[in-house]
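U., I forgot to send this yesterday:
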Amino acid sequence: YNFQALNDREFEKLSRDLIQKKFGLTFESFKPGRDGGIDLRHISPKENNKIIVQVKHRTRSKFEDLFNHLKKDELKKVEKIKPDSYIVITSIELNPLQKDKILQLFSPFILTTANILGRDDLNGLLGEFEDIEINHPKLWLSSVPILRKIINNGVKGRSDFALENIVRNI
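Result:
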């Protein structure tokens, strides 16, 4: 997916659902508007752990635009918040050098490039967590493989049932 079908809020919710599954944690979401650098947040008093997530939906932007925005606007906010861990999620494609550049910018708050998720990472997570893909219909309504799956669902169900009967009879 290129995520162009989603608006900023929908992309943020999709990102939240994916990282909740990936990390096995619950992240708080907040209303749209000025957020002080916090799109999503996980706070665990037991482990004394604060994870902040910044979601940037920029399907038509270049990496340089994203990086300059992060440097100019988000870095100050992160330094003020001082999270134990910081995660950046974006809808643009990232290569290893670009992830390294973001990691350096937000050091020591981003602990690893695994906490920088670009378009390819999100698509990988969608492949891993199909239930999340299903819960975001605006995402898959334009997906040919998903529509084929829906259309052929009845045939597959009947075929599976027939196969079970054959195996049972054998």
